[in-house]
Amino acid sequence: MSSHILNIKNIEYHDWGHQDKYRARIAWVGTVMGSSKLGFNVTELPPGKRAFPCHSHATNEELFFILEGNGEIRIGNEKHAVTKGDFINFPPGRATPHQIINSSTAPLRFIAISTMIVPEVTEYPDSRKYGVFAGSPTAREVTEDTVRKIYPMDGDVSYWEGEE
Are strands 108-115 and 98-101 parallel, antiparallel or unpaired? Predict the structure, then answer.
């Protein structure tokens, strides 16, 4: 079997989440296959759950394809129904903060694909924070070559603060 081919029946899922609201099983397919410029995974959301907070990307574009199930995509403050076969695309920018929610009573599975341009700034409008990411775009753990920092939006300092 080539490392360039991986059947969806053979992917390995990992539990992901935080408290009760965020629960998913994610197969980090791009990382496993050695992708360096595209990130891609298969995500399965249980009923009533979401994998990530609502967010937008300053640099990277995301594409989702619904494999099975029904749910909603939140775009800003609006929710839109999604179902098997739907493509959903988000170019970079603050105009389209988004979040996939399984609002059904059955699992929702989708493929998530994104460019992996670093550095990246991700904004989380609900919690009023932003994240700064640099280094290896596929690293799932922080190393000496990566930066993953989350800051409150109202925690500004001046450009010259701390400079002598």
Answer: unpaired
